[in-house]
Every structure is written in structure tokens, then in C-alpha cells.
Design brief:
Blueprint (H helix, E strand, L loop, with lengths): L2 E2 L5 E2 L16 E3 L5 E3 L9 H32 L21 H5 L24 H13 L31 H19 L1 H10 L7 H12 L1
Antiparallel strand pairs: 1-2, 3-4
Helix pairs in contact: 3-4, 3-6, 4-5, 5-6
Amino acid sequence: MPTYDKDNNLIEPTRFTPEPEGDGFTPAVSTKRGKTQKNHTPKVKPTLKRRLAKWLVLLTLALGLLLSAAYGIDYFFDRNTINWQTPIKLQTPIYLSPRTQAQAKQVEVVPTAQAVAPVAKEEVKPVVDYDEILRIVYRKESSSGKNDGCKRQGKYNGYGYAQSTHSWKCFDSHAEVTGLVRAWFEKRVPVMGLPAALCYYNTGHKTADCPYYRDYLKYAKSE
């Protein structure tokens, strides 16, 4: 059906001419008033993968910058230190002060260092009274010879020297057995000490304490 305008003029219908394919434009659309309007193609939103790839690249760049900055700061402080200076004090460069008599005559004395060799301290060894040892042992073993069983045979011991359940030695004189007992203690006291020597003499065991040594101390205090 033909269309007329206000002045009764025939309006020819607008013919649609399709655009060639592949040019990227959208064909025009005719309106009722004869005007054409382009239908713009909507922008394609980026997909989720593209967004993730974009953020991954940005994070990689940011991490690289942070690492570079940290390395630069570490390199700087590895070769430099920060020192705080005292504030500058404004004062006159020259000032006068009265010289005292003590300052004028003062002479600095520098002592000369002398190397003093350390004096080696001699080790003080305890003095062992072997006469006391023999006297106390003789007193303890036979009441100073009163209970010496060898006297029945006309011989001497009284120290309990070389006497046990397995052997019973007697000697021709008191001086002989006294010399043997003295030699026995002189050989062992410097090596093992007096307490162990007395315990070894009485029991045959090298111990640092025993009743025989404690009795020896009691006899020593009573003299």
C-alpha cells in the first residue's frame, strides 16, 4: 500500500542494500520517518581466562619489582652503614683562659713497661713423719710391744708386719723389723698417700678410708 506525506506526496519505500560480508560494519536499519540508524555490534567482554592471564602478568611484574628493590636495598646496606652525627654546636673558634701555675709546670711522666716474668710457685709437699707412723702402728698392733707374740720365741715383731693367717714372721731384733716397716711406708706413702697406705697395710686393699686409718687419727690426736 503506497504511503503519502502531509503534502500528499508519494513516499517511495527505502530499499535495503546489504553490505558486503567481511567489512566489519553492521547494515543500516530504516525507520518509519525514512532515517537510517546503524546498529552497532556490542563489544565482546574478555573471558575469564584472559582476565586471569592479565592479572598473572601484573602480579609477576610486581613481584619482580619487589625482588629487585629488596636486592638493591640489601646490596646498599651490605656496603654502607648509617651513622648519626651529633648536632653542630655554634661557638667562637678562639677563646682565652688563664693558665694556672700547675698547668705551666706540669710534666707528663710516661712509665716504662717492664716485662715481669711470673714467679713459679714451688709445690709444697706435706712433710710425712715416718717416726710417728711407726710409733702409732707399733702401739696399735701390739700395745708398743707388750703383746708381741714373737717374744715367746725370743724374737721381735710387734708391727704385725708379714703376719697373717697364712704366715707369721718374727725377726731377730726390733731394729730389723722397724727398718723393714719404715722402708715399706716410705715406698708407698708418696705414691698413694697416707690413708690408702695404712688401709693397704692392714687389709691388703687400696682404699682411701677404713677403720684402721680412723683409729690412726685417734692415736695421733691423743699423743
